[in-house]
Amino acid sequence: MGGLCTGAGGRSLSVMWKTVSEDCNLACDYCYYSTCGGKPGKINRIDFALLDTFMKDYMRHTDGVAAFAWQGGEPLLAGLDFFEEAVALQAKYAPPRTVISNALQTNGTLLTDKWAAFLKTYRFLVGVSLDGPKDIHDARRVDARGQGSYDRVMNGIGHLRRHGVDFNILTVIHKGNVNRAAELLAFYKREKFDHVQFIPCMDFRSQETNRPGVYEITPEEYGLFLSEAFDLWYNGGAPELSVRFFDNMLSVYMNEQAELCIHRSACPDMLVLEQNGDAFPCDFFIGEEWKLGNVGVHSLDDILASPVYDQFKALKPRLPEPCRSCQWKALCHGGCPRNRNWSDNRMTSEPDYFCASYQMIYAHADERMKSLAGGLRLRQFESNVRRYLKGKVPGRNDPCACGSGRKFKQCCLDDVQSASLV
Ligand code: SF4
Ligand code: SF4
What we know:
Elements: E1 14-18, H1 48-61, E2 65-71, H2 80-93, E3 99-106, H3 113-121, E4 125-129, H4 134-140, H5 150-163, E5 167-173, H6 181-190, E6 195-200, H7 219-234, E7 242-243, H8 244-253, E8 270-273, E9 278-280, E10 293-294, H9 300-304, H10 307-315, H11 321-324, H12 329-332, H13 355-388, H14 413-418
Parallel strand pairs: 1-2, 1-8, 2-3, 3-4, 4-5, 5-6, 6-7
Antiparallel strand pairs: 8-9, 9-10
Helix pairs in contact: 1-2, 3-5, 7-13, 8-13
The protein binds iron/sulfur cluster (SF4) (2 copies).
């Protein structure tokens, strides 16, 4: 999701843009956003003048890093000329020495040799939606005629591979694959997919922000899925696959901050833009009551100063009682506010719908995560002591040599002593 820029008040901001609004060439039956049924008609892509206006404003606020996530619908329907214009405007308005990055989430079916060459040239990170082997994928990810898209997606991935484009796989977990974790993991291995992430299937539209979150799978099913996937991922203490959920858990055990919003204590500063420039604080809060403004009309400063933004940001830390005393709070932080049922005044809520899933996977993985993280931190510690500290172990109050940013005494001291490294 997005990247970083320094917005009003010096805070960093990630930007995700719905490039073609709801337009999509597929009609996946569980889609939480598009209603065009795989027949998009005339494409509603972002207007070039709007793109220019926002790019200029956004780049004025950057502080060395400018990053964008392009989503849909199916963003490739915007056409190569749209993305050529986007990267040209980024280059035009970015201050000198700005690092520009772009991410793109696609169903993969429209990828061609020409697209892959472009994506490689501009170093896009591409997320491809793929729900598993052909029978699983084709049951839900279909076009307007009801035909599965698996072969077209794999063909698209072939183009990415030939051009050396960085890509990862996004798998929606639904009734058709939630009991098939082993098959999914074997599939990723067979196809040499080394970065994957899971998203539990939503049974509501992201625009219906007043409707409670409804999901196709039960918390128990998702918890069992994650636990089985974890056993395979762990691989006897030598994971070979990057699974975003487990990587984020591992970061916390490494005394680092998770990168995925649901694992963090606060929702990140993020701007989700509709194709027409309407701005919202999150992909799951695209409703009129959460509208922050429009980037074609309002300045970024005004949008970020919207009181609606503050109301949104206040939700996540307003934890329900069970979360406040939960033993897994540091890993979970109450999950996602969209998955909690809120009181009318939004001052209180139930725990995240997937609370039971989280409790299950966190308990299931705890001992092995501790062991994995402990070993990794010690190796990092030893290496950094050798390379940067001329063999001298830090003092108790010095920054820990593992690189966590914590004080040594609050980080690796006990482990280092147990391993007789001091
Ligand atoms: S596991 Fe459940 S109770 Fe614990 S922090 Fe997460 S949502 Fe709250
Ligand atoms: S509301 Fe949920 S999805 Fe949105 S930023 Fe917060 S944690 Fe992430």
